[in-house]
User: What shape does this take?
Amino acid sequence: MFSRLFSRTALAVVIVAGAAQMYRPAQVNPAVDPAQAIDAGGNVPADVMATFKRSCYNCHSNTTVWPWYGKVAPVSWGVADDVSEGRSKVNFSAWGTYPGRTKVRKLEDICDEVKTGGMPLTIYRFIHPDARLSESDVSAVCGWTAGETARIEQEARLATMPAFAPWVSRGGLVFVSGISAADPAAAVDVTGQANDVLDELSRRLASAGSSLDRVVSTSVYLTQAEDFAAMNAVWAARWPKAPPTRTTVVVGLPRPGARIQVSAIAAAGTTTRDILLPAGWPASTSPYSYAIRAGDTVLLSGLVPRRGVDNTTVQGDITVQTRAVLENAKAILAAAGLRVADVVSSRVFVTDVANFEAMNAAYRAYFPTAPPARATVKAALTNKDYLVEITLTAVKGGTRTALVTPNADGTPGKPNPNLSSAVVVGPRMFLSGMLGMVPGSAGDAAAQTNETLNRLDRTLNAGGFSWPAVVDSTVYVTDVSAAPAALDAMKARLGGQLPVGTLVVAGLVAPEGRVEIMLTAAKPER
Assistant: This one.
């Protein structure tokens, strides 16, 4: 009797099990868009990515490798359910589709699960021993989630930063704020981004009554020197004749994914635009002019240590190279009927802050009295042989007054032998890059920005100018995290609206400095 019952029961089990195989759950891998996968942005270290693929991808991606036991009912139902649930919680194949806040929550969950041993599941680790995580694996994963959370939150903060005014026209010139590609993810290479930038520049100039062929000066900020040749090709196509002057340095940019940012100055209305070239010099082999005269203003390209007469590199230390640059500047200014003493503003880029004092010593010899306003920052240059690049602006005629920033109590400030706090020429004022380190402000970008603005405010007032006269600003920050604090402080100080400006991530020569701001002001025409 028992034997017959057992046999019938066993037969029933076999029949049920066999029937169950006919109703297997769907085991499918949805299509993967590589652009949305977690490794698409290059933000995941190789060791963390290897851990994810070894221990997580079978349940948390659309690339599940379905195991043999997952094809046998009733286990197949459990496996399918685990994969479905895993994908619903975190799907590494669809990471790019999650909003920023969702990513942050999931990053926190990922670290918690691997720390507590909740993931991978115990049964999965038993069947797949290679999925087990070591302490170093857990440390690497949680280290990455913390860093990625900070990066995402910073991106969100950058996206809400106040924007500079797009352009302003004053004194016969149009000043245009720094422009980067509208969607760096859509134009990944520098060629696409550069064209996007120049298209936007063209639109802004048209709004101001100017055009690309009226541009007199461009400042090009690249994130990598390798993009220089491609950028050059874009410039050559846009300006086949009489290109504007150009300064090109390698720095950091505030917009994630941006590889190029450009600010510009163009001639407005009937302002003349004349290309200048010293006698005996060949035209530049790159698509830029050495200097352009726009009305009474002469704007020079960023000059590097190359001989103008034959375009060969001047080898040597920072002293030799600084002299070579400024000798070139003398020749270019002479072609405009100007002298070094007519220079009102200077931007100096050094590749090594250790060279700062030696550069100063060579520089001072060319500006022994009432030197121009100046900002000096650390940046990489487009050729490894260059140690310095200098951009100068000069004004022909007019009364030239060099100023020193007054102290907070109104007493006269201390002159700097390397620069004037500001130079006033007629209705224009050129202010040096200023910093705001005070006791207790180390690392505090907001505090430093506020003190910098105090000093700029006193300088503007000393020259008879005010903030509404500002037509251009360059804000240098040592890292992107300082940018929101700096711009928020500027916006609050300036009544809720930023002037035309450009934000650049570069090294400062002051060790504790995090923010430096340089201004140009011009009084409205009456």
Observations:
- The longest strand covers residues 173-180.
- Residues 1-17 have pLDDT under 50 and may be disordered.
- Residues 135-159 form the longest helix (25 residues).
